[in-house]
Amino acid sequence: MNTTGDMIENFDFYIKDVDADKLIDACMQARPDKEQTDLLQRINKAVKNVQFQHVLSRTGWHRPGGAVTREGERITNNLRNWAEQESGGQVSSLLEKYADKDWFATRLLGTTHYLVATTGNGSADFIQLEVEELQEVLARPLFDPDGYPESLEEFVEPIDFPELEPEPIATPRYLFRRAIPIGKTLEELRVEGMEPRRMRRFMHDWNKSTAAMNTFFQNHWVIRFIPYTDRYGDKKFNLKPLTTYQDLVPDVAGALIQRGAGLANLIRDIDRQAGYPMAWYFFMLTTPGIKHEIAWSVMEDHSAGFDYLPKRDIEIIKLWCEDPYSI
pTM score, two decimals? Predict the structure, then answer.
């Protein structure tokens, strides 16, 4: 599993006439279910001027939870904060106080649910809500007498430690993460000199393609905001488009890419499975399953007079061949 830390940056809501507290409360009160039905009903009741739909759930991540006794009594909900407060910054102080305790650290197994609401016709004209579904489980003994941690970070997230069976110790719950008005957020990042150029080009390509003539961007893609700290200590973001059809992305080896009718049929098959034209192109930009050779082959076919794509899509592919990129 990958570990994701808490975001301390909060985007503004930009949702007209919406009480942020009501939106957060709607997430907290909802009961987790397979289709996120209760969550959607409560959110759309709190946000009446736009309609949200669930488009993607991203699983496979976790973060540290808290600590409990062997009897299940709660010591803390936040292991990191507790360790910092109890140790005064020195892991040795923590060990002196508690190394003999038969306590357990917990872990939060997470799923991020992406909900979107359309606000216009452009690829960036939507609001993206991110709601976490968290399941707290037993992770490990809080202390291992065979190897004590040398730092607080190692105590909170040890690399090598005896794992326990991840037994749930609480019911699953939703936690509001953030609300992102995509268009305004991208513009703010540009003004602040942090423009995600590849992300903007990706969305520009969508707007110019036949895909935009057939469907909304947010029905098929969401944007993952990945925080990082640059070498100057400034907090920034990498932006990564995530397809809402994770299980449908094909694996097309470069050696299998044909020419002419074979290539035309391959492209049509990919687009048909995804449900919109030019899906193969956007998958090519974002996933390793579709090699860049496919774009070069399309242009070679076009140069040879074998046309099976609309002119507007050919123009996008031509520009890509002149200045390739991926994201």
Answer: 0.87
